[in-house]
Design a protein that fits this description.
homotetramer; Rossmann fold; 20% strand; 6-stranded parallel β-sheet; 13 strands; 12 helices; 2 domains; alpha/beta
């Protein structure tokens, strides 16, 4: 049985790791930390875990964490980079769900996240944890930087085009919408039910931290820089990201369909829908799937790709477990076979 | 591997059976029927099942159904009673999720459901499928009538009181609220999103079909008739029933707490919350659990019991699978260990 | 033109006063205060008021407030009682939407609100601002205590029974559910969208501050004490309260219907629905109406009354404006004729 | 007092006309028709109108309609064109909220709407009812074709750019999302609460009927054809459209801001937000406003315009009333001054 530690378990991605790992046949969560809630039973914070977990939040302790086979960081940015170096040094494998190790360009990271990066040297060995792109590297990694939620939905939608040579331009548009759980579990007026329900809005139009991450990954995949216009929106739902992507292409609709189907033929979690079908977020709610549809409206040379994930699963904790499976030589899908909760 | 047939699989309880049985290690759905959708692939009606089920809806055929180890009816009332007699005769075990075999009093059934009952003799051998009440009888039954959604939430909440002798009166009140999936998947203006979202209302105040069902079960448990005032309400959520129950008692709060904890000590799916905690529907969403809290506000002799279930799981398909497990000698919890989807 | 001041205008009841008074033909908001947001333009906090109000939040100043014809307090409890005495002394009329002057029994107030009451003598002259009960007194009052949201819905539902002599017992039950705006605009994890959407729960079962308020009003109306079991619930909607009330009666259904219709025959905002219809919160959303239905399910002597209001309008700011109209000798309905926003 | 007739009053745009006109000081709804609901009281179909309207749905009668000063058609497409010619002949002024008279190109109309157009000659005199574009023509029109909901939000967002000469390309993208009320009040499984809540999806990607309408209006405004990629999405809210528009421009951010502010300086219902603010649908809920923000993310030459309206008000019935005001020589804003319902 693989022993798992979770650092920062009070947020939604921490809770989702608990939910997913509870049913993992080969891993067990041995310890979970929280500075603010130490001493509180997990089941008292999250009643859904009553009868399932007997864990209590504890203060993070390097020795206890290092003794785990694998440690997940489900912390705000800036936390993992303080503790990860010690764990890496002791040989513990780490999957960081925060943004600390996602950007190769340290200066860019420091600009977007507004603080100095304390271990730039570790960044060099971090592997970007998108299994559909990087499975081989993930399998050997000691430190995996799990992708952001928007970057997962957007990158999976653009990748086949970038790799296929049909793009007429590297000027891309990603119009994405996320459920509110992506904003985390902080007490902010902006995230109150009465502020968000029954409404919809764009945010972060001038610049969102996921922009450089997406451009880095897409640029690397394309072999040349891409320029992305990225506009995130906030949906009055808890879970789910839907990305609507626009790209100029030199290809017919059936070619595009074939490009996508071929690209993801061996990916168990990415489902390319038949031509004419479109994804909806509920059909991946609670599951690790990503559903993608590609269209060429009115045959005008502008491809529209729709991509849907559950931001807490494929966009965060599920993808992290998928990485763990790969790192440990297990089948990618172990513990991740739950079907979306519909209706 | 147990072979399962589902009659009437296009509705929400049929879809939920598919979702739950997909992960059941010892059962496999071999056939699913629908008169209206025959020839349609299940995954085309419910995209969430893409990659999981390769089944196609077929017309109901007695021979093919009788060849299954167990057949679930997820049909509107009035359908099962036409087909069940043949299956029973051939030795197939049946779990009916509809109302056809829930009421012992055939005249009452015919009054409430507005049609003649076509096999009253079978009613005599039907076992009411509430495992917390009837596990022994269910294990031997050939025909199980799975309880209604409201009756499950209400009955589980009142049972410990009825059996304990602390009730000061058999005049009971059940104020319950259900998610919209309980209304099924019929095209009705009343159930449109724009009619129900952002609103709340009572319905069926003058009389709801679940009233005689609840009174029958509670009366049998009490050993004398009970009179229930039952008011259902419609919540702008998809899944979940919350029942708030009122009863006059001659007992102190800690006695009540002990009565509930003792009563459900051996029930894996009923969770009596510690004094002072209250259930919420989200903490059972997608799970087979029922969470119950008992209070005695202001020590005035009026007990308030809150009971929460997912109407599609413990209130329908999950409870039916639980019955199947018991009928087949499996552990009650096999395939039903998923944790609620929170947030 | 009547000059209006609002103390504590950043919360939802303050914003609702602004929305309603913007269209009032005979009143104008001259100043609005907020300690925390002074200097902020109202339209920057609430973009819905762009182009409508040019006000800026200012620090509360007794002189400026006293110069208004009428001052509303839309503050948390404990604030009004500090400032109201000065205004009363100077002859300004005051409508307090908070709880400070609602309870006649000061000891009870101090127990339920957990702090000393600083001006018990003023309590004696405060008039409880439920126009359907107290219009005459309100018209002459200098200090009106606007009722709580739950007390409005519950009291309007019980009043006709209490006054009619058909009650078989003074043991009453009020099962009520409120939209989230009732919880105010504070940054609390419990009120986040991701915590409340798609769920439903009871809260405050052991004791809610509106209990003594309701019992006081109902007891006064009945001429003898009543005992209420009051269970509030939280709905995943922003606006709306629905109360389902239970009472034992010695009367037939048509008698009950007549009692309610007669009682509210002259009340422009209380609409007794025809027998067989039931209210829904959306049909009062944004309006000052209260819709009430009375039933006698199965003719068993237990009356069920359903009562629906918008908690921010009839349950708070609309009712306060209704009181203002009465105090100023205007028609009760001036500025309050907006129709509910449906769908 | 202007006498108003409404044809097809059972749908949501019909109900919204009733809601808005109830408070219009110079217009009164004299008759409302419905073939399916004739004989039903309006207040029985829409309880929100209890106490406000005493109208009963009647069968459409040309004489009675022709006697009105103005007739609104709130019908599905294909209905108005049968009855409008008679009314026009008799001199009655008509505002058609359906699509029958929106497209100048009759062949295009017949292709997109899949039926023959029965009065192409009338199309020539129909005026497209977007007041911000066509106020002069509307004031003299006998037949006004009120714009579609998406076309209103999209056109208002693009117009200033098209007229300003800063567009670097006429290749435009409109990514729009609508509340469910836009789908109407038909009994369809796809529009059930349990199918749409807690989810989000694109639809009509291959081609939506509002595409030719938008391209026609934008092309006319630009003086040359534009090519639009238009992707609508369905939001789990009842009211509201948010359009996110993308266009390549040769201009700086402050120029863009000035272009928008100047363009709408005299438009009472279009509110250009200050730089840095973004609209949300709730801040126009129930109001006739359109809120627009223009951004130039990362200064990369790609303008992003966000535009929000209430699809039932500015996107349908409110805009129709605005047109009526203009046609009758009233101030544009009469009866349309309600503030958005927030929260």
């Amino acid at each position: 049985m693989i022993s798992v530690g979770i650092v920062g378990g009070t947020g939604y991605t921490g809770a989702e790791l608990l939910r997913l790992l509870a049913l993992h046949p080969q891993a067990r969560v041995e310890l979970i930390t929280s500075r603010t809630e130490q001493g509180l039973r997990v089941a008292d914070l999250y009643p859904a875990f009553r009868g399932c977990y007997d864990l209590t939040f504890e203060a993070p302790d390097a020795d206890r964490l290092a003794a785990c086979d694998i440690v997940f960081f489900a912390t705000p940015h800036g936390v993992a980079m303080e503790l990860v170096p010690t764990l890496i040094e002791r040989g513990t494998r780490v999957i960081d769900l925060s943004a600390d190790f996602r950007l190769d360009d340290i200066t860019s990271w420091e600009n977007w996240y507004g603080q100095p990066h304390t271990c730039p040297e570790l960044q060099k060995q971090a592997v970007y944890g998108l299994p559909e792109l990087n499975a081989e590297a993930i399998s050997k990694a000691q430190l995996v930087a799990a992708p952001g939620c928007y970057p997962t939905a957007v990158t999976l939608g653009f990748l086949p085009l970038l790799r296929s040579g049909v793009l007429a331009s590297h000027d891309l548009i990603a119009n994405a919408a996320s459920g509110v759980s992506g904003a985390g579990r902080q007490a902010k007026v902006d995230n109150l039910f009465a502020e968000l329900n029954d409404s919809f809005k764009a945010y972060g139009v001038s610049g969102h931290r996921h922009l450089p991450e997406i451009e880095q990954v897409l640029g690397a995949a394309a072999g040349e820089p891409v320029s992305l216009t990225f506009v995130p929106h906030l949906l009055p739902i808890i879970r789910g990201i839907h990305a609507t992507l626009y790209a100029s292409v030199a290809a017919q609709a059936d070619q595009l369909q074939a490009i996508f189907e071929d690209f993801y033929a061996a990916s168990p979690f990415v489902d390319v829908l038949p031509a004419g079908q479109l994804p909806q977020t509920r059909s991946v709610k609670g599951s690790n799937g990503c559903r993608i549809a590609v269209s060429l409206p009115q045959n005008r040379g502008k491809a529209v790709i729709c991509s849907a994930i559950d931001n807490l699963v494929k966009g965060a904790s599920g993808q992290a477990v998928q990485c763990m499976n790969i790192m440990l030589g297990l089948s990618e899908t172990v513990g991740l076979d739950a079907i979306a909760l519909t209706p």
